[in-house]
Amino acid sequence: MSLLDIRERISNARSVAVLTGAGISADSGVPTFRGTDGLWKNFRPEELASPDAFERDPKLVWEWYNWRRELLSTKTPNAAHEAIVQLEKQIENFWLITQNVDGLHRTAGSTNMSEIHGNIWKVRCTNCGTIAPNHDVPIDILPHCPNCQGLLRPHIVWFGESLAQEDLDASFRALQNCEILLIIGTSGLVYPAASFAPIAKEHHAFIVELNLDPTPNSNLVDISFQGRAKDLVPLLLPS
Ligand code: OAD
Question: Measured by CB atoms within 10 angstroms of the end CB, which terminus of the chain is less buried, N or C?
């Protein structure tokens, strides 16, 4: 089966879900998590993206996020992000589930989506819980809440934390109801997203994976294409 066949299937589908990971933003120049260029001062993301790390050393964690915000502020969506916006316009029931916190899908124009790991451009007060957009680059370290002076943290779901219920609900709804699931640029290693392909499969979705390398999902999906997201995803647009 070729990408053209998949395009044909997509053009006849009434419901499509898409799951994306860091690989789609790699084509915008954003380092992936598990690639060597994604490391900051030799810390693995698991060592910094956790409530324990923040409690131990909030300054270190904010310095890492400040570095990532500086890097992201120079990046723009690529042809794969844009193709997903077009899919949303063309498919009757469309839902995007992204693990990316970089906000590039939103900048590209996607709206039917769950950012299941949060968004790096939002902050949340550890005291009063207020969530607010914040695009400061650099951000004050340590940043404090304008309402209550509590310490602000990134509005991101860290290792060991639960996803927001509404994001889980929307994701499960999309996975259970989609005719086609596209999995783009994710290593498939981090839960719960790692369980998403099996859920869609149980509900008889046709699953297509687009990734630079083989992944643990490659055996489970119906078809897997290897290549760059920015080259492959635009080829799936119904003509
Ligand atoms: P990973 O870094 O684990 O995986 C990125 C995947 O994208 C790998 O399988 C690469 O082979 C692939 N890839 C790289 N460049 C690509 C390209 N140009 N086109 C297509 N594929 C490409 O990133 P995620 O799977 O997103 O969590 O990681 C999942 C979560 O783990 C992240 O959301 C993050 C992280 O720790 C949080 O921040 C909470």
Answer: C
